[in-house]
Write a structure and sequence with these properties.
The protein is mainly alpha-helical. It contains four helices and no strands.
Length: about 80
Amino acid sequence: MSEQDDVEREFDHRWADSAEHKEPSARARMLAARWKENPPEPQPFRADPGPVAPRRSSWLSTTIVLGCVALVIFLLGYTQYRSPY
């Protein structure tokens, strides 16, 4: 056989896709084995996510970031003002 035939045979996806029996993925086999012993609880289509912790105000984060930026600008301006050149 020529090398070209080997390459064509190695990457022949049509042949692989036309197989009668396809082996499940490793994750599918793992879940099937796990669920055989301990089946999952039924879930509604869109289950309620449950209680959500209240979010902190975004204004606090914005204030901290803008304060840090203002402080850096002030320090850079002050060092330029104090330099003899």
